[in-house]
Amino acid sequence: MITKIGSDYVIKTTDEAGVYEGLRELWCVTFGDEPEYVDATYDNFGGDIRGYAAVDRDGQVASCLTLYKCGVFEGRPVYVSYAV
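The chain above was modelled as a monomer; its predicted structure follows.
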């Protein structure tokens, strides 16, 4: 998924090449966590975690959002934001 934000950034998912690595790096710098912690968080939630990142023209992650599934309400998944 790519969504354009003006002419400077696009929103990409962590499924796209290089995006997860940029999200992980930004997460570690921002929150002081080790890369292994971020990897373990994503591994722990499996398919129930989603990452999104605002990526600049040079491919650098400028901002990120991680969502994890916390349940189901009226048959629809409910996600909580984490590590914004």
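The radius of gyration is 13 Å.
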